[in-house]
Specification:
A seven-stranded parallel sheet has the order 2-5-6-7-8-9-10. The chain is α/β, with parallel strands linked by helices. The two termini are 37 Å apart. The protein folds into two domains: 49 residues, no CATH class; 333 residues, Aldolase class I (TIM Barrel). Helix 5 runs parallel beside helix 7. It is built from 14 helices and twelve strands. It binds ligand V47. The site of ligand V47 has 22 residues, from strand 8, strand 9 and helix 13.
């Protein structure tokens, strides 16, 4: 069906015509998409682009989370996970051996990725993670490490008083395979001051990502929405990510993160609603025309929105997870983990075809459906893709 037939807002029609012509959208068009009440129209346009990129495929992985510390030098109003340095006894600070033992509880040969992030802890910086990555790779040689946000890398360079490039090179040599997209929050200074004052600012976040991409490591990117930001600030955040992607091609996936207010300084705010969750997924799919994947992170939006989001622009659901702590600390109720069979059932019930992937989005032993869908090409040659491994559960 022609997606324009589902557009009812007259202001959305010309935007839809630009999308169908395959042309890039600008800021004003982004603001129309972010503010229209024609949710079905926006969703139909985003679904059109999603199917052009990925056909019916929805990606997922078998992963585990590992948070070696929650002790944090930052005091972000948005966060319910961190324990301040002044009360560090109330938090946890695992030794490398403890962290490896924690990982060993949940990791078997079917798990392809460990997602590792932690608080900004001055006692656990480059040398700690270098040793942790080496130990993890020695114990679980098949595992890929998606670890360290741009904020953590920036913090390590400052605390260790070494160049950022040295931090990245050491962690890469110790086994870092890719970086998660967290810590970007919202780039607008006005809102950033309120939700995460003193944290690595938006320009620096982008600069660190540029450096990581330049050293051949792919990263994800995120946007935290549903707090004090405006629709215009959401659009500007996405356009800043798009600008960097045009330069480096190093972003592989964008993840909209739904703000969870419980146990934060914003506990008076309501959680995000389904309309904002779906419209943000769709807005991202339509503006981020060169970022291959858009993830509906089921831990944050819940299973049902994650299912519907696969018709609003999302082509990835993240993974099986098991021990998620950041969203849970802020009142998340979607769950701590999900068996592979259930993730696949969610995808199939939404009318999509599940594709098990690794950290770098290489299908794991699945046949390419060969349905003519085209993932946007990376404009960079700095980032190479390695060979795939078959590790089906
Ligand atoms: O960095 C913190 C955000 C992020 C809250 O790259 C909050 O594949 C909501 O980045 N409510 C961590 N969000 C999660 C994250 C992520 C998750 C899954 C996959 C990937 C990926 C990345 O969550 C933090 C911060 O931006 N966050 N507190 C909160 N109260």
């Amino acid at each position: 069906m022609d997606p324009l037939n589902l557009v009812t807002d007259p202001a959305l029609r010309p935007v839809g015509e630009t999308v169908l012509a395959g042309r890039r959208l600008g800021r004003d068009e982004g603001i129309v998409l972010a503010t229209t009440t024609d949710l079905v129209g926006v969703g139909a346009l985003a679904n059109h682009v999603r199917e052009r990129f990925h056909g019916d495929r929805t990606y997922y992985n078998i992963n585990r989370h590992l948070n070696p510390t929650n002790v944090c030098a930052a005091t972000c109003a948005l966060c319910a996970f961190a324990v301040p340095l002044s009360r560090r006894g109330e938090g946890w600070e695992w030794s490398v051996e403890e962290a490896v033992e924690r990982a060993a509880r949940d990791v078997d040969e079917t798990v392809s990725e460990l997602h590792i992030v932690g608080g900004l802890n001055p006692s656990m910086t480059t040398a700690y993670y270098e040793r942790l990555f080496r130990e993890l790779k020695a114990r679980f040689p098949w595992i890929q490490l998606k670890a360290m946000t741009m904020v953590e890398l920036d913090f390590f360079a400052r605390v260790d008083r070494i160049p950022l490039e040295e931090v990245i090179a050491r962690l890469r040599d110790a086994g870092l395979d890719s970086c998660p997209g967290g810590g970007a929050e919202i780039f607008a200074e006005r809102a950033r001051r309120k939700i995460c004052n003193h944290k690595t600012d938006g320009n620096r976040w982008l600069e660190v990502a540029r450096t990581v991409h330049g050293m051949g490591i792919r990263t994800n990117c995120t946007m935290l929405y549903g707090h004090v930001e405006t629709p215009e600030e959401r659009v500007d955040h996405l356009l800043a990510l798009r600008g960097l992607q045009d330069e480096t091609g190093g972003f592989q996936c964008f993840i909209p993160l739904a703000f969870h207010p419980a146990n934060t300084a914003f506990s008076h705010l309501p959680p995000t609603g389904g309309r904002l969750d779906l419209q943000t997924v769709a807005l991202a799919r339509l503006l981020l025309d060169t970022i291959p994947h858009v993830k509906a992170y089921w831990i944050m939006v819940g299973e049902k929105i994650a299912q519907v989001a696969q018709h609003f622009g999302a082509d990835d659901l993240d993974g099986t997870v098991v021990d998620e702590r950041i969203t849970r600390a802020a009142g998340g109720t979607a769950g701590r983990g999900m068996p592979r069979s259930r993730l696949e059932a969610l995808i199939r019930e939404a009318g999509r075809t599940p594709v098990l992937r690794d950290t770098l989005y290489r299908p794991l032993g699945e046949e390419d459906p060969g349905d003519g869908a085209t993932v946007p090409a990376s404009p960079t040659s700095a980032i190479s893709r390695g060979a795939s491994t078959d590790r089906r559960q």
